[in-house]
Design a protein that fits this description.
It is a multi-pass membrane protein. Keywords: Cell membrane, Membrane, Transmembrane, Transmembrane helix. The chain has four helices and no strands. By secondary structure, the protein is mostly helical. It has a domain of 55 residues. α1 runs antiparallel to α2 and α1 crosses α3. It is elongated, with a radius of gyration of 29 Å.
Amino acid sequence: MAGVLIGLALLAFWLFSLFDVITTPEEEVRHSPKAVWLIIVAAVPLVGGAFWMMRGRPRTVVTAGPAPVESGPAPKGPDDDPDFLQELDRRLRGESEA
């Protein structure tokens, strides 16, 4: 049972690596042409996939700091709107008196 799970995990890793090479744009591939990476990953599944992840895959850009804040007034909820609160108060008083 453990052998089957390991085999499925290796197959999943190989397929992920293969599809990742295929879907990565040519200009973002590092160190070798995309066709060479495709041959390496297809021919040597575990080692080729590991090399692709370490050396060929595009680097992701990580930005530090808070997300930019949009300018303009912050959206208000209905409970922050004075007109809504007055209308609500009027409705509640009208219903309780009737």
